[in-house]
Amino acid sequence: MQSIDLKIRNSRGIELASKLELPEATTTYAIFAHCFTCSKNLNAVINIAKALNAMGVAVLRFDFTGLGQSAGEFSETDFSSNVQDLIDVAEYLSKEYKAPKLMIGHSLGGAAAIYAGKQIVSIEAIATIGAPSAPHHVQHLFKQSIDEIKEKGKALVELGGRPFTISKQFIDDISSTDMEKLMATLRKPILITHSPQDTTVEIKNAAEIYGFAHHPKSFISLDGADHLLTKNKYSLYVGRMIAQWVSIYIE
Questions:
Q1: 137 DSSP 8-state letter
Q2: Is residue 144 scored above 90 in pLDDT?
Q3: Which CATH number fits the domain that encloses residue 123?
Q4: Domain-embedded: residue 143
Q5: Is the sign of the CA dihedral 147, 70, 31, 41 positive or negative?
Q6: Residue 102 within any structural domain of the chain
Q7: Tell me: the pLDDT tens digits for 185-199?
């Protein structure tokens, strides 16, 4: 397998730190959207990519603007900019390597994967992991600061033990999304994976996404897993299941 470090410039001119992992016999290309305030180097992301690589799927994982090793300010991003980053990365792959056919997203990245996957013509299938049925679901992570954000325009909040500046623009943007409306016109196969024990994004979100989606749609329960898939057996399992599932939709 070949592992290539990339700097992909998005449509706003910001460099996104990326890693493209190519199996010797590549069958298709996939893009991975990491979870809210996470990075491409989360252990679960690496394991899922590894499992996909073993089954011939090349994976490009990258850091959203302002996160991980990417340039830019997180405080100036929102859900729409995450979606645009995915579109920009897909365009880069199409020009420099091969057009991606599979979009994978974890948590809020899963919601972004659905929104971007609908817009990117080459994407033929979408897979989500612990995704919310409405992007504004993430507000509960900093609900104690919502009033301050709305009053002052932004606030410093602690997420996962790290400080992040959340702007009113971010709140307004996620509040304006409508997953049900978007999925009413989505005609691409979708795989929804979720843990019944997920305490960050409850399992009812998976049921709602499944209800919004048109067939072909599939669901896999990750019984016993936590939201971040911290146990290796779950992330490796997810990678293998996605690769098996997508094989009937992508040649």
A1: G
A2: no
A3: 3.40.50.1820
A4: no
A5: negative
A6: yes
A7: 999 999 999 999 999
159, two tokens: 């997420």
Query: Domain count of the chain?
Result: 1
Question: Is the bond into 135 cis (omega within 30 degrees of 0)?
Answer: no
Residue 63's domain comprises 2-138+178-246
Name the token pair of 236: 């490796």
Q: What is the residue whose two structure tokens read 């929104």?
A: 115
Cβ neighbours for 77, distance < 8 A, ≥ 6 positions apart: 64, 65, 66, 170
Is residue 150 situated within a structural domain?
no
Task: Give the separation between CA 100 and CA 91, rounded to whole angstroms.
Answer: 9
Answer whether residue 173 is part of any domain.
Answer: no
The answer to whether 192 and 203 have CB atoms below 8 angstroms apart is: no
* 3-class secondary-structure state, position 224: coil
pLDDT tens digits along 62-81: 999 999 999 999 999 999 99
Six-digit token string for 52: 């996909």
Q: Which two tokens stand for residue 120?
A: 């990117």
| DSSP element (H, E) containing 237 | helix 232-246
Cα distance between the two ends of the chain: 21
Task: Look at residue 192 in the predicted model and tell me its pLDDT.
Answer: 98
